Amino acid sequence: MNNDYYCIIMAGGVGSRFWPMSRNSRPKQFLDILGTGKTLLQMTYERFVGICPEENILIVTSRDHGDLVREQLPDLLDEQLLLEPMRKNTAPCIAYANYRIKKRDPEALIVVAPSDHLILREEEFKQAILKGLEFVRGGEALLTLGIKPSRIETGYGYIQAANGQVVASDPDFRPVKTFTEKPDYDLAKVFFESGEFYWNSGLFIWSLKGILHAYAKYLPEVEHLFSEKERFIGTREEEKHIIEIYRNSGNISIDYGVMEKAENVYVLCAEFGWSDLGTWGSLYEYLSKDRNNNLVSGDQVMLYDVKGSIVKLPKDKLAVIQGLENYIVIESDNILLICRKDDEQKIKQFVNDVRIEKGEQYI
Amino acid sequence: MNNDYYCIIMAGGVGSRFWPMSRNSRPKQFLDILGTGKTLLQMTYERFVGICPEENILIVTSRDHGDLVREQLPDLLDEQLLLEPMRKNTAPCIAYANYRIKKRDPEALIVVAPSDHLILREEEFKQAILKGLEFVRGGEALLTLGIKPSRIETGYGYIQAANGQVVASDPDFRPVKTFTEKPDYDLAKVFFESGEFYWNSGLFIWSLKGILHAYAKYLPEVEHLFSEKERFIGTREEEKHIIEIYRNSGNISIDYGVMEKAENVYVLCAEFGWSDLGTWGSLYEYLSKDRNNNLVSGDQVMLYDVKGSIVKLPKDKLAVIQGLENYIVIESDNILLICRKDDEQKIKQFVNDVRIEKGEQYI
Predict the structure, then answer these.
(1) How far is B175 from B160, CA to CA, in rounded Å?
(2) How far from chain centre, in Å, is Cα B86?
(3) Neighbours of B127 (CB within 10 A)
(4) ipTM above 0.85, yes or no
(5) Is 0.90 surpassed by the pTM of this model?
(6) B42 to chain A, minimum CA–CA distance in Å?
């Protein structure tokens, strides 16, 4: 294992699409949403333990969730945990981690990963990441991981790969032509059939030098905020300066701020069974169902004439459910959600209504 | 108010059709199922306070539910509460109360009433009962209350009234021709259209002398069990003798044991807005719904595209429910039931399965 490999796990998300299971106080990455006995964060962390030295794995999360991270990863060293004072999207998050890594190894090679995605084939994932880390060694290439689409999907952003071999022996590395937002169905169909488009996985690989150079070029104001406070990073005085930096920083994503603008961007086309687990439906796709195609968790659930549904209830709750087809029935923390699986995009609206009518404590 | 009026409220039922709201430990009569702030037993008791002297109202229930009765009717005198050591249906229950009443007033006129029915028009109910009590005075007539059907209903037993005026000035009293079990739809339709059939309300009115005579004639073995222990009834030694009586008594209903066999049976045809509240559906019929025809209780329930459904959740439970039409969603005591309203007759089967698979504690 190479000592110059680093990993930044971004664990600052607060998605509401898994409400009521995910809550502001316990976002998706902190949940055992797959029912494996481990949370998504724990699974992500363990995945990278096999890729880079454990102490080189940094987790960036909101200050509010620091205790949750420590609870779920009790062996984590203090210097592995970076707490953001406020949410400013991924560009400041990655910049913060970059400056921490810079103190330890200016030659670092870095993989940036979301904390709440599903990887089905861990070994293939590992090989792709290792290949990517060596690809960026000694240069300033910005590499994204693109997932070969397995279906027409409107829920993901896409990366269009240009023609042209980047590495003589490996056709999976290709220059990026464009990044695109989530397409509508017709466009997604075109993307799927073209063979040129890949799902944007949110996984990035680069050298520290490469990404710092890109910030300096495309996000100079963010770069400046950090560079002028560089001497405080990793010291006892860091916290107050980080608060100031974040207060002054714009809310900006790495995709918009860097990837869509930079020229030396490449995609590593991969296939390792990936999902961003963005919705109950995507979870449903990837987990094993019972013979009526129900995804059930809860020890005391009795189903009659229920098909194609997701039922997730507290372990001790006895439930008799009859006559539902393609529904979601979730209870978590004394909040019950019942809705049609096909209407799950409405959950966002429900959560918003709950916030307005019942109060923030239910969110 | 006449001092010879007595009332026997039968509160020994353990129906499972309102599961999970009704449980073995808290059957339907002990629930505020209408959401009025009073349980059905409390409402029944108060109804008769206006009809006979309060101390003449006897409540017969299972020994297991004595504390529940005392809790819900804290002013009840000890002698008003009769505890059955085991369930032997209505004939022994009424016999027991008869012998208690006999100690106090051999000339008593008695109304026997279920504890868990709905009466919408209390004043009309009262007038019918009073009229009935005077009808049985000085004779041995056995009077039932028949409810004029308002719809084709397969869920009730029926009483067929014979032609023939019983009281010159009051055509509502008529001789009974037959008692019938719950009919199928076609037969229920014939009943409804004939005008001869009335719903069997389970309300009976008779003189103590009349009913004792009927027991002696049609249920001599039950009559004998009580009469040979008569001297212990109402004494400190009653309990152990009641246990013996019940142990030796058959399980037999007053309808089958007496009413269907006796010849001096009459029906008082009445209309006071009655339901036996036998099912969630019957409850749904009688209570006021929201503009989407939903019957909702629970302060924190948010419905989207939900119609014709019954939603009853604990007060503190936040629920977002979307896309259900004609469903029942009930949670009580950490048990959740979701089923189609039209399939509610299956609840009995569900409860039986729960008993077998999960254990008696959930029933």
Answers:
(1) 9
(2) 18
(3) 14
(4) no
(5) no
(6) 30
